[in-house]
Amino acid sequence: MKDSFLGKRIRGGGYALKGALLLIRNEPSIQVQFAIAIVVTVAGFYFDITKTEWMFQCIAVGMVMSAEGLNTAIEAIADFVHPDFHQKIGHIKDVAAGAVCIAAFVAIIIGCIIYIPYLQAL
Ligand SMILES: Nc1ncnc2c1ncn2[C@@H]1O[C@H](COP(=O)(O)OP(=O)(O)OP(=O)(O)O)[C@@H](O)[C@H]1O
């Protein structure tokens, strides 16, 4: 079982889960996004949003947190391979942060499309 196809997949899933927990425990930006995810989940139940809205909301939350996780990994690699100041490292980090910015911008638009009509109906 240990080195079987299924065993390797299960072990890989365990490492990935460990990585997700490490991000939530140690990364302030992920912690903020996790808190926002909880708030919008509560809002989703409060306003009784539709199944489609739940799907878009879940995709938006997953997209932002995944992008932030990858950004964190890229920053860690950049600092590991080149701990000193370097223009190229700055560019790499800016581009990685830019990806998070795009994901967050799209998530904000999705949030507005979902919740503005519910807020107007209050
Ligand atoms: N080694 C470096 N060389 C050149 N510029 C850097 C370097 N490290 C950081 N920078 C610049 O500073 C910005 C912030 O980098 P930093 O690694 O502090 O990211 P951060 O977004 O503050 O991440 P975190 O808050 O997760 O530590 C980068 O986007 C880049 O423009």
Automatic annotation (TrEMBL):
The UniProt record lists the keyword Cell inner membrane: no
GO molecular function (one): kinase activity
Entry binding sites for ATP: 15, 27, 75, 93-94
Residues the record lists as binding a divalent metal cation: 27, 75
One Pfam family from the record: DAGK_prokar
Gene Ontology cellular-component annotations: plasma membrane
Domain of life (superkingdom): Bacteria
Cofactor: how bound: Mn(2+), Zn(2+), Cd(2+) and Co(2+) support activity to lesser extents.
Transmembrane segments: 30-47, 95-118
Residue positions of the active site: 68 (proton acceptor)
Membrane protein topology class: Multi-pass membrane protein
Annotated GO biological process: phospholipid biosynthetic process
Compartment(s) of residence: Cell membrane
Keyword terms of this UniProt record: ATP-binding, Cell membrane, Kinase, Lipid biosynthesis, Lipid metabolism, Magnesium, Membrane, Metal-binding, Nucleotide-binding, Phospholipid biosynthesis, Phospholipid metabolism, Transferase, Transmembrane, Transmembrane helix
Positions of substrate binding: 68
Cofactor entry: Mg(2+)
Lipid metabolism recorded as keyword: yes
Family: Belongs to the bacterial diacylglycerol kinase family.
Protein name: Diacylglycerol kinase family protein
Organism name: Zunongwangia pacifica
